[in-house]
């Protein structure tokens, strides 16, 4: 059952990691008869993974050869490595919220020597939200690994995931200090509102990066990342949409929808490149085909994802509106050649490092 495991998560990190591994093994749904199995997992025979084929590597399962058979072009590397800044941030936020530990305990080889996050902690989540955070956190581990294995890695930057930093985000969005300060870890609703803040920017970034890369392995990587990041954002927005008209305790009169509208407006203002962000509701003329005010997915007039370039993303993530002035989620600046050039500092990494598989 889940509840005993959640209670175990309050233990210290040196006793927690083995328990986490045992739980993940149980949840793989391959436990032998007589062993504890996560009740959320389907019977092994009913799983789609049980389907066996003899020609999985045959021509019907492989993409055609590209016109220019270059796996990774040199100019693909920096934009894809830049994406690691957001992937690191999401991984640490989701993992800590679900398990109380992050990459240093779950996949320490992927940090490449970067400092641990500041202020990240286990959140008080209901079962559904906990499962979402746990799954998405583990997915982000795969994202970090996939990028590093394809284009090489950069060290994890210093990431501020403290309640104080999220409170600053919300205060900036509302234009005044919320009382009490916003805390993303206090309950499931606040956690989902905090999830509205970061993952959507990953969609913007990958959409903006796609036209400037050409390697077939790099494009395959980006498409896979974009698909999952978009799915994660859709889950968060759908859950928030269900309660869009409800107030967010203890802030009397402030609804979930207003929170999303304020956050989206703040991101547009910080990004300084027009409207590329919308809350859960919009005037009908701005909705899909100008016919609906619901806005479960944020998209442009043709219902395509908005694109943002690195400078825009840094202005938002730094909370400064200036890609040259670090702060916010990256108090010492993001890592990688692109981010460091904006800071006019030497590249922090000692060359590109690729982890062992």
Structure characterization notes:
The chain has a domain at 80-244 and 309-343: Ferritin, CATH 1.20.1260. 45% of the residues lie in helices and 2% in strands. The chain has 13 helices and 2 strands; from the N terminus they run ααααααααααββααα. The chain has helices spanning 2-8, 13-27, 77-82, 84-99, 103-106, 127-151, 163-174, 188-195, 199-209, 216-242, 256-271, 310-317, 337-343, and strands at residues 247-248, 251-255. The chain has a two-stranded antiparallel sheet. α6 packs antiparallel against α10 (216-242) and α7 packs across α11 (256-271). The longest helix has 27 residues, at 216-242. The two termini are 32 Å apart. Residues 1-16, 21-35 and 347-352 have low confidence and may be disordered. This is Desiccation-related protein PCC13-62. It holds the Pfam family Ferritin_2.
Brief account:
With 357 residues, the chain is an all-alpha fold. It contains 13 helices and two strands, in the order ααααααααααββααα.
Give the tally of β-strands: 2
Predict the CATH topology of the domain at 80-244 and 309-343. Answer: Ferritin
Low-confidence stretches: 1-16, 21-35, 347-352
Which percent bin holds the helix content? 40-55%
**What is the count of DSSP helices, taking H or I runs of 4+ residues?**
13
Overall radius of gyration: 21 Å
In round numbers, the mean pLDDT is 86
Q: What portion of the residues fall into strands of 2 or more residues?
A: under 5%
Order of helices and strands: HHHHHHHHHHEEHHH
CATH architecture of the domain at 80-244 and 309-343: Up-down Bundle
Helix/sheet category: mainly alpha
């Amino acid at each position: 059952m889940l509840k005993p495991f959640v209670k175990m998560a309050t233990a210290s990190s040196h006793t927690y990691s083995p328990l986490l591994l045992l739980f993940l093994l149980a949840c793989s749904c391959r436990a032998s008869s007589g062993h504890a199995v996560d009740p959320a997992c389907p019977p092994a025979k009913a799983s789609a993974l049980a389907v066996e084929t003899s020609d999985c590597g045959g021509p019907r399962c492989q993409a055609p050869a590209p016109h220019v058979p270059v796996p990774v072009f040199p100019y693909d590397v920096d934009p894809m490595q830049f994406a690691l800044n957001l992937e690191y941030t999401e991984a640490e936020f989701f993992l800590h919220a679900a398990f109380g530990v992050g990459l240093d305990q779950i996949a320490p080889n992927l940090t490449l020597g970067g400092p641990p996050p500041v202020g990240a902690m286990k959140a008080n989540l209901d079962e559904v939200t906990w499962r979402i955070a746990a799954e998405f956190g583990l997915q982000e581990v795969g994202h970090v690994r996939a990028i590093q294995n394809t284009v090489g890695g950069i060290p994890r930057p210093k990431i501020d995931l403290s309640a104080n930093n999220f409170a600053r985000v919300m205060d900036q969005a509302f234009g005044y200090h919320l009382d009490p300060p916003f805390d993303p870890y206090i309950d499931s609703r606040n956690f989902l509102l905090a999830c509205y803040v970061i993952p959507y920017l990953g969609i913007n970034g990958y959409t903006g990066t796609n036209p400037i890369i050409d390697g077939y392995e790099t494009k395959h990587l980006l498409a896979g990342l974009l698909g999952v990041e978009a799915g994660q954002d859709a889950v968060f927005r759908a859950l928030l949409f269900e309660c869009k008209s409800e107030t967010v305790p203890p802030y009397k009169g402030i609804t979930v929808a207003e929170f999303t509208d304020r956050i989206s407006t703040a991101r547009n203002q910080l990004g300084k490149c027009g409207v590329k962000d919308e809350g859960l509701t919009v005037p009908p003329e701005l909705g899909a085909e100008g016919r609906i005010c619901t806005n479960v997915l944020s998209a442009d007039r043709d219902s395509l994802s908005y694109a943002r370039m690195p400078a825009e993303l840094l202005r938002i993530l730094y909370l400064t509106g200036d890609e040259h002035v670090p702060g916010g989620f990256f108090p010492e600046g993001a890592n990688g050649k692109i981010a460091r050039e904006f800071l006019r500092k030497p590249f922090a990494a000692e060359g590109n490092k690729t982890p062992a598989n």
